[in-house]
Amino acid sequence: MILEHDNGSIEDATLFLDKRGDKGWRHAFASYLRKTVNMNPEGVRKIREIKLKDWQENSLVQIADMYSGAVYRMVTEGDDRFYKLIKKQEQDFWNFR
Fold it and tell me: Looking at per-residue confidence, does 51 or 39 come out higher?
């Protein structure tokens, strides 16, 4: 959703996907992103490259996973223990319902 509602702020980005998941899903998801959401209204490419990374070998993927897990837990279960630990690092939070 963020790629569809970024107001043109994402351009020529590199997107990292966890390579440990289902290969068919990864391929279909990457194809969807390239075909459906890759261009902004001005015709500028949003995603330059999609790279597969093992989350156990990449600290940036681990951080993204932990952050999204904390937000997910707060939104779905009302448990904000972990979110409180990362809230001060937050720059922009979009709550989609």
Answer: 51
Residue 51 has pLDDT above 80, yes or no: yes
Per-residue HEC secondary structure of the chain comes to: CCCCCCCCCCCCEEEEEECCCCHHHHHHHHHHHHHHHCECCCCCECEEEEEEECCCCCHHHHHHHHHHHHHHHHHHHCCCHHHHHHHHHCCCCCCCC
Q: What is the share, in percent, of the chain residues with pLDDT greater than 90?
A: 10
Instruction: Note whether 5 and 93 are within 8 A (CB).
Output: no
pTM: 0.61
- Please, are residues 74 and 95 in contact by the beta-carbon 8 Å criterion? no
